[in-house]
Amino acid sequence: MADEIEFGTGGWRAVIADTFTKANVRRVAQGLADRIHDEDVADRPVVIGYDQRFLSPEFAWWAAEVLAGNGIHVRVIDRPAPTPMIMWTVRDKGCAYGMAITASHNPATYNGIKIFTEGGRDAEVEVTGPLQAHINTIADADIKALGRDEAVEQGLVRVQTSMNWYIDSILDQVDLDVIRHAHLKIVLDPMFGVSKTCLQTILLTARCDVDTIHERRDTLFGGRLPSPNSKTLKALAGVVVERGADLGIATDGDADRLGIIDDRGNFLHPNQILVLLYSYLLEEKGWIGPCVRNLATTHLLDRVAEAHGQTCYEVPVGFKWVSSKMAETGAVIGGESSGGLTVKGHIAGKDGVYAGTLLVEMIARKGKPLSQIYADIEKRYGRLEMIEDDFSFAPEAKEGLKKRIYIDQDLPDFDVEIDHISDMDGIKVYFANGGWIIVRFSGTEPLLRVFCEMPDAASAQRCIDAVVAKYGL
């Protein structure tokens, strides 16, 4: 029996050579081809791109061969490309679907496939649910494929190597003159991923002084998770301080998430970046509109929105929910505490390259160090501290934990007054003091994720400790 393929919040991800195999990638491509024919959109091309992971180029071409074998035209971005660039190309070329071969910030042993729909959006569950069900009925004998050379010769596959259209789209949206006259010194850390060319080109065009670390291809990501956080960006922080840089910018493995080091070598949490950019768009650029965050993201955004007569909308985890709510409400920015954000007028998905560039524009326009800019934010809106942690568990314990947490709502005694509880996604407890804690299962790994935000870090840690004690984690 074929392996079961399951789509989570960020597409399908699995361990290479276990479930993520050539045969299963071909099944996914055949399933997408069948859907395309059922919807009668085979006259529109599919864009496929890939990251720096082990065998990602090969997986991309195996998928392209299957689509071509089904008579579907394919545009293959045949160089490592940021996921947001692939999404942008889907929108720019009027494609019905796109694919990225990536496992984003997951461990090096993983790879995956993200599916994009019309307009360059993350595929919603209304697409991935039926697609998953169909894929899991496909046998090897059902797969039609055309060899790479033959597919190119017949014109069914077109190779794209240029990144210019995507880069130019970002350059068109930022104030280059402001950045040029700021003479900023910036250190980039692509984390052995795919953002180097795009970010370097954009920042050098804006006359920034740019240094880069961890830029080569390393399918083991230097032995670290390709996820920009306070633990993985210590080297970047050291280089920023050593070279007297104004800013350090890091992106995850496929460049849709962002990590920032300020001028003092401090890591800025993605929550802080969202608050900085939302207030900047409203106050400096004169934009008007609400914001969107997932339910594991800072409520400080709510304070910024309220101060400007706006609303902050809360959605489940998964960026497709953020982009969908943004389209519905006309929000100017949407994001999540894991480092992904997008801004109105760009793609309807996460883009670490664009977000990093916009942050550079903010620093240039304000003419202050980033550390001072955020200190000013805290004076106006106060301070909230978030602590997050992941806890592994035995696979056989998952169903029991789900019942206790989701169904029975057998919660710890937090020693803090509870205002209300939400089961929108996992279990989120809202405290009367404005703090909150959420407990939810990872969609890709055997982990229980816990996020807690309180007025101070000690209070947040006590709440997380209560969860650990309650469930024996």
Would you mind describing this structure in some detail?
Helices cover 37% and strands 21% of the residues. The protein has helices at residues 22-38, 56-69, 83-92, 125-135, 148-153, 164-171, 176-180, 196-205, 234-242, 270-283, 300-307, 319-329, 352-366, 370-381, 398-407, 457-471, and strands spanning 12-15, 46-50, 74-77, 97-101, 110-117, 121-122, 157-160, 185-189, 209-212, 247-251, 258-261, 267-268, 291-294, 312-315, 333-335, 341-343, 385-392, 418-422, 427-431, 436-441, 447-454. Strands 1, 2, 3, 4, 5, 6 and 7 form a seven-stranded mixed β-sheet that branches. A hairpin with a 5-residue loop joins strand 11 (258-261) and strand 12 (267-268). The two termini are 34 Å apart. The model has no long low-confidence stretch (mean pLDDT 95).
